[in-house]
Amino acid sequence: DAGVIQSPRHEVTEMGQEVTLRCKPISGHDYLFWYRQTMMRGLELLIYFNNNVPIDDSGMPEDRFSAKMPNASFSTLKIQPSEPRDSAVYFCASSSPGRVASGANVLTFGAGSRLTVL
Amino acid sequence: TQLLEQSPQFLSIQEGENLTVYCNSSSVFSSLQWYRQEPGEGPVLLVTVVTGGEVKKLKRLTFQFGDARKDSSLHITAAQPGDTGLYLCARGTYKYIFGTGTRLKVLA
To answer: Which of A9, A31, A50, A105 should we substitute to test contact with B (largest number of B Cβ atoms within 10 Å)?
Structure first.
């Protein structure tokens, strides 16, 4: 398996522009997560899906952020309009049903999309 | 949000030294995971601990889950430059929350 695939790896854009980040999860994984990582705030959960349905979007910063999962093999995170404070590395991760006694899932992360908003 | 505090925040040591990093919470959690993240990559799972007092070993890495399941530690014996990275603990069953991280640098 190729793992979780994210694109683009790097994006530089100007304030006010629309940004779309893409993710292809591992085949068979039924959970998909979007995280944002910055030096100041660490790794923050933005939203997660189960079977393509958004379950918890309480981490989405504001209305400028939206995420969709139209099918089991594709998800997008969109920022419109983008602002300099959105600059961060955005990670997508997927997981399969729990394999340990507690039911804890095992997250597999993509390599991330580094976003710079000027 | 139930925070996971990790300490130390930064650690720079010489090759061959031993070190311990910590993950603490005020809440009990059912399981805890440790990840390592290298520059330009996503975090990679190292281990999951489930039972209070549990100890797991992964080569030179020893993971311990506190008896009360509120804390965990990661001990590295004879650190090597390849151990350099950001070490993250995480709790959750479906909604995963990550700790603040320990950034480790091992000098050759």
So the answer is: A105
Report the b/e string of A80-99 with b at 16+ CB within 10 A: eebeeebbbbbbbbbbeeee
A–B: how many Cβ contacts below 8 A?
A: 67
Cβ–Cβ below 8 Å for A100 and B43: no
Q: Which residues contact A39 (CB under 8 A, 6 or more apart)?
A: none
Identity of the residue in B33, B42, B98 whose CB atom sits nearest the CB atom of A112? B42
By DSSP bridging, strand A113-117 and strand A19-24 are: unpaired
Q: Do A50 and B43 touch (CB under 8 A)?
A: no
Instruction: Dump pLDDT digits (tens) for B17-72.
Output: 999 999 998 888 888 999 999 999 999 999 988 888 999 999 999 999 999 989 99
Which of these, B14, B45, B27, lies nearest to A100 by C-alpha position?
B45
Is the Cβ–Cβ distance between A29 and A23 less than 8 Å?
no
Q: What residues have CB less than 8 Å from B107, skipping those under 6 apart? A: B12, B13, B14, B15, B81
Give the pLDDT band (50/70/90) at residue B3: confident
